[in-house]
């Protein structure tokens, strides 16, 4: 019997939703691991909409659940319906949508608020001692919700220009959490909290290295499940 894993999305597209390559990589590795996956997203309006061709704001409104349905091929549920008791683990891909729609990190940094259903989902899995997988910017969710936990967003210095968002590690430390430096093809396991993190596109790296790093995260989550 395969592990039952919930995947939580934040929209569709790196600049205002879930990072598509990260979501796809997680799904591929979960499939390879024999997991049974169900996909969820909060039924809320996006903080903003970005024209991904120009990088400019678009004057329109979009719904996070509706946009996430694009990635889920339509097979998706409202995050409010997620019951931790029905799953063995939960995974959050990254993308700016995490920092805009699942929490307000993009605007408020370490002083951000976390969406109520995202918060309750994280708390429910953590309380049940079930693993939580997070990649790219998603580890800030754990840092905000679980003070004292260990996560990685890659490196804490912009090594060779590959980690332009290295200051995120400092913000995580200011929240009372421990940042663990890892390469893009690695993940970190906080065994005490059953939180598994990998930096993904927080590092400027070839796509296959990001894919492999997400693979290590998924493998560790499935081991803990």
From TrEMBL:
Stored InterPro entries: Class_I_gatase-like
Residue intervals passing through the bilayer: none
Source superkingdom: Eukaryota
Protein name per UniProt: GAL3A protein
Gene expressing this chain: Gatd3a
